[in-house]
Amino acid sequence: MIKMSKKFSGVVPALAVPFRGHEIDFDLLMEHLGRLLKSGISGLFTVSTTGLGHTMGIKSKLELVKYVSENRGSVFVIVNVSSIEFEEIRELVRASERLGVDAIASNVMYYFRVDEEGARRFFTKIASMTELPFFIYNIPQNAGYNVEPKLVRKLKSELKNLVGIKDSSANILQIADLATIGDLAVFNGADEITLPALAAGASGYVSALANVFPELFVGLYRAYVERDYRRAVELYREILDIAVDLKAMSLNLSVYGSLSTIYGREFALIEVFRPLREDEKEKILRALSKYRVK
Fold it and tell me: Given phi > 0 = left and psi -120 to 50 = alpha, else beta, which region is 223?
């Protein structure tokens, strides 16, 4: 029997989603998807933090899931169903099942503070809604709670469809601990520790900056898998430089500003985000020029 977690590995962009006013710009999204698929990515993580999923209404979320599922090529798709409204979660889960996506994921209950038992109940309730593979999405800096390996171990023994975790804690010791849990795909979500996370046992990474530099992230992953460690270190140093340069500003601003430059038209955030300053635009141009992004 093939273990479900083995399907999930490699480079998975946390899909950035352009807007036109309050509507998704599907024409530009198609161009962006095409560029990512040509780069050799393994999967897509959608309705994500980078993709502004937590700001979308259910209508836009359903439209996005349908569009990505129908235009994904041969890569796998993980849908983030996170919400504090269970009817919305159920609707996203049902749509994911109907559209044939490969897995769902969820944060803990955010806004309201949770403890370990609250997190266990929340994840159990969502996982029990479906037979689709389920991922825990750990992003403590945003959700306000860190899903520790001891809870993941407990849930792994209780939930038959728990196959992985996307961990954005940037805690390499936590990644290493998670990687010792049997039959669990561990995706690192912090761009600045891509190579250390692979060395610690991660299955791959869900990356925001892979929207901008997909070939760089794919190249690093392939070099590591092929044991070309010298090349892997070279590419990691480039990624680390980029992360330091661009993550000094808001991550969403840097990603969407970079994509606006690449596509020659505005890859727009929703309007509550501030515009880029001139010095930030110059920093983006230098990064794109330095790493010869097309």
Answer: alpha
Provide the pLDDT for residue 237. Answer: 95
| Angle, helix 229-246 to helix 251-263, in steps of 10 degrees | 100
Nearest CA to 168 out of 159, 178, 180, 153 is that of 178
Mean pLDDT by 10 residues, the chain (294 residues): 68 95 92 97 94 86 97 96 92 96 93 89 96 96 92 97 97 98 96 96 96 96 98 95 79 88 86 78 83 63
Residue 208 DSSP SS3 = coil
CA distance 73 to 48: 19
Asked if 65 and 101 count as a contact pair (C-beta separation under 8 A), the reply is yes
Arch. (CATH architecture) of 4-211: Alpha-Beta Barrel (3.20)
CA dihedral (119, 125, 131, 137) positive or negative: negative
**Range 248-285 burial, b when 16+ CB lie within 10 A, else e:** ebbbbbbbbbbbbbbeeeebbbeeeeeebeeebeebbe
Residue ranges of the domains in the chain? Answer: 4-211
Q: Which amino acid is at 59?
A: K
225, containing H or E segment: helix 214-225
Determine contact, residues 52/62, Cβ cutoff 8 Å.
no
pLDDT at 277: 85
DSSP 75: S
How does strand 19-20 pair with strand 43-46?
A: unpaired
Contact 190, 198 (CB under 8 A): no
Query: What tokens does 68 get?
Result: 């990505």
